[in-house]
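ok so for the tutorial part 2 we go from a plain amino acid sequence to predicted structure tokens. step 1 is just haveing the sequence, like this:
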Amino acid sequence: MFADHPTVFAPRLQFVLLGDSITQNGTEPIGWATLLAHHYARKADIVNRGYSGYNTNHALALLRVHIAEGVWPTTHAQSTAEAQAKQPPAIVTLFFGANDACLPDSISDFQAVDVAQYKQNLLEMVRLLKGADGQANPNVRVLLIGPPQVDSQAWGRACMEKHKLATPPITRSLAHTQLYADAARSLAQELSLPFVNCWSFTGDLVGMFRDGLHFSAKGNYKLFKVVRLVIGQNWPKLAAEQRPLDSFPFLQIKTKTKEGVEDIFDSHLAKQKEREKKQQEQKQQQQQKQ
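step 2 — the prediction. this is what the tokens look like for a chain of 290 residues:
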């Protein structure tokens, strides 16, 4: 009856999306985070930690507070691989740069972060997540996402309308933002981190953006597809297609009574625990032989 779905209880993975407004807006109906959550339904929980307007100075300070409060895994995490594997999050996406790349001396210069500092901030966030040596908790997987291209004229018009300005401000430029995209890609290469290169697929400024800075439905869908692809390529066991459902499909529990349902779950949970026990014993025996 349950041959295709023998697992009664499979702990869901947790993916945390840490970023700026492009991540925060990802939970809109057509957002990339919403699409990711749908793709991993009953297999992983997608936690959106997007903060509109944040740059990497803001995010680094916030991450330190989170770690101090025990929100994130740290070097003091439980030591066994089995315990760490169950400890969320399994993947953290770091998606910053759109605000760091604000032009100095523009009306948004308070958000601007020098490109060298931007790269250093990303490095420090990776170290905080994975430990000082980057290996303290290898089960925290970091996916770095570089900033996309920007249509500075369209964004200026959007800001003028929103804030009732007399003229459209120029707060970003394509050339300046590219420095940050290149820095993010460079850091990913240096640390051997999986990387999503938004710059490479956002050349269609009109189609990819709704306001010159934030993704349209098309841009969100493209980012979702690339994130899904990169996860599957780098961590095949975390691909949605390889993850078990967290419990039975309801059509395979064909009984009307409360007691009957409980009996089914109890029976198969006992069988699941017995299988896990045997697997653990076999693993220990193999280790002893080695």
